[in-house]
Specification:
Layout (H helix, E strand, L loop, with lengths): L7 H4 L4 H11 L26 H10 L3 E8 L4 H13 L6 E9 L2 E9 L6 H6 L9 H18 L10 E2 L10 E4 L21 E2 L3 E6 L3 E5 L3 E5 L2 E4 L6 H11 L4 E8 L3 H7 L14 H9 L4 E4 L6 E3 L4 E8 L5 E3 L2 E2 L5 E2 L2 E14 L5 E3 L11 H14 L3 E6 L6 E6 L6 H12 L5 E6 L7 H11 L6 E8 L12 E8 L17 H8 L3 H15 L4
Helix pairs in contact: 2-4, 6-10
Length: 543
């Protein structure tokens, strides 16, 4: 089979294409190739809510979305190259998760497994929220999950439900199967890798860093942690993130150090809350993010007390790293690190760091590496449903918004346009209030914002630049955008690619698309074609 013969049906079927993809990657150094995944067997998949990451991985595998590789040489950056190649072939939202049993790091083979691209595939949203998966249409399952979440927001008046967590004893907590203290701790022995050749070193980068503050309350967020030694980690919460605020507040109070606990190998709901803003940061009192995790799961999350502090952590995580952050000492150099826009971020001369005091973990723990800028980092249906809900407060005509994470900074939104100026209004609102929205393209409701081809079609056939192009100066941007001339400040662009009404200088009437005319004349044409020729089209190119 040559590489042009791979198809998404292979990916969700026997796994032949995935095995060949890995074989191509490993062939250059003679490393072991992939074992083909088993045939899809969704009936055997564990059902959500997933109490452990391993249950979720088992569900991925049962749905044909896991590629297993016995070993890979990361000293030669084969794993990073494989992720690039998987994206080249399947796109950010079509890649499989990748499990590697052993990884070569600094000249020695380190036991994993190491999980990669864990929630990248768009099918993940349906799996996490228990919706039906259509192997031929990942967007359908994603939208079913998003609709479920939208109903939650409607019922909660803009907030997701809460089910308070429950605390269990250490003997019942999987993360306490092994307890390491003092000289027993050596984080360098675990499968934490250096992702990019120019990164500052190996990173623990799929974290949920738990902090406590008398005003902000308990919080957890995803901050990269550079592996500096057996019991020494860098810590990088960005300015104004909750973790940064908690550490700076403790420093201002004169405290010598802050205690933190870091969860690794979290269940998928804890992970998505950790690295997104689905829990609002406003209100009279802090919102319990772990209670929101329970609400999204439909089941209380089980917590356990840390060994060296009072912080409660997910009881069934793969590993918990506990430590102290010195607050009255000079910071340590940290970075650089490959960032979300696909460029190397600058190193920092002084940054927070952690003296590790205790590590607890499951027997033979599993690890996750995040490829920042190279993957969809988590299931996005919860944050996308929240974005749509908030947008409709000011622009009721909003149908759907979407950010393709392989095109950071470019934001699509569709609206049910009924009057002049609505496209511009929607685009301006998004540009002003969404930091990552640097270029906003507004389209009509017949355009699917999950399909970039359709958005480009609208841009080419419905947009005129003179009257439907608007710029904004000195807007809020993201620190990781390499084009910013001034930190956190950016110019933005709003493109109204909706059909322009006569009041906006458009044609009257604006013509229908040929596809719409076909469906109008023959409403069942595509169903009939699928019945007669669907198999032929799916099987084309597989021979």
């Amino acid at each position: 089979m040559t590489d042009q013969h791979f198809s998404r049906r292979d990916l969700l079927g026997t796994g032949t294409a995935l095995a060949a993809l890995a074989a191509t990657s490993c062939a250059s150094t003679g490393g072991a190739t992939a074992t083909a995944p088993s045939t899809r067997n969704p009936a055997a998949a564990p059902r959500p809510p997933f109490d452990t990451m391993r249950d979720y991985v088992a569900a991925l595998e049962a749905n044909g979305l896991l590629l297993r590789i016995p070993e890979i040489d990361q000293d030669a950056y084969e794993l990073t190259g494989l992720v690039y190649r998987a994206n080249d072939r399947y796109g950010f939202e079509g890649v499989p998760a990748i499990m590697v049993d052993r990884v070569k790091i600094d000249g020695r083979w380190v036991e994993g497994p190491l999980l990669n691209l864990l929630q990248a595939n768009l099918h993940s949203d349906a799996i996490v929220f228990g919706e039906r998966i259509d192997p031929e249409d990942s967007k359908a399952g994603y939208r079913r999950a998003k609709a479920r979440l939208a109903r939650m927001l409607e019922e909660g008046k803009g907030r997701y439900p809460e089910i308070p967590p429950v605390t269990i004893g250490a003997q019942q907590a999987l993360c306490k199967q092994v307890v390491l203290r003092g000289d027993e701790i050596d984080l360098t022995k675990f499968a934490f890798i250096q992702t990019n050749p120019k990164d500052g070193g190996r990173y623990v980068n799929a974290t949920s860093v738990f902090t406590q503050d008398p005003v902000l309350g308990s919080n957890f967020g995803t901050y990269r942690c550079q592996l500096k030694g057996p019991r020494w980690l860098g810590l990088n919460p960005e300015e104004n993130q909750a973790g940064w605020k908690a550490l700076m507040a403790a420093k201002a109070r004169g405290e010598k150090f802050a205690r933190v606990s870091i969860a690794l190998g979290q269940d998928p709901i804890v992970w998505l809350i950790s690295c997104s803003r689905v829990v609002p940061r406003f209100g009279d009192k802090p919102i319990d993010e772990l209670a929101v995790a329970g609400g999204l799961r439909g089941k209380a999350l089980e917590l356990v007390k840390s060994e060296t502090n009072d912080i409660l952590v997910p009881a069934h995580a793969e590993m918990i790293i506990e430590g102290e952050v010195p607050l009255q000492e000079p910071g340590q150099p940290e970075g650089p690190f490959g960032e979300m826009f696909g460029y190397l971020g600058a190193g920092k001369k002084e940054n927070f760091f952690i003296n590790v005091t205790c590590v607890t973990h499951r027997r033979s723990p599993w690890f996750v590496n995040m490829y920042t800028g190279l993957q969809r980092g988590m299931v996005t249906a919860p944050s996308d449903a929240m974005s749509d809900h908030l947008l409709r407060q000011s622009v009721p005509s909003v149908i759907e918004s979407y950010l393709h994470q392989d095109n950071m900074g470019i934001y699509f939104v569709s609206i049910d346009k009924t009057g002049p100026g609505q496209g511009v209004q929607a685009g301006m609102n998004i540009a002003k209030f969404v930091p990552i929205a640097k270029v906003v393209i507004v389209v009509d409701k017949d355009i699917d914002v999950l399909d970039k081809r359709q958005v480009l079609f609208a841009l080419g056939s419905r947009w005129q630049s003179l009257k439907a192009l608007h710029t904004l100066e000195n807007q809020r941007g993201l620190i990781t955008d390499p084009s910013l001339p001034e930190i956190r400040k950016t110019d933005k662009l709003v493109i109204d690619a909706t059909r322009q009404l006569p009041e906006e200088g458009g044609r009257l009437p604006f013509p229908s698309t040929n596809r719409a005319l076909l469906e109008e004349a023959l409403p069942d044409v595509f169903a009939a074609v699928d019945r007669r020729f669907g198999t032929v089209l799916r099987d084309w190119g597989k021979g």
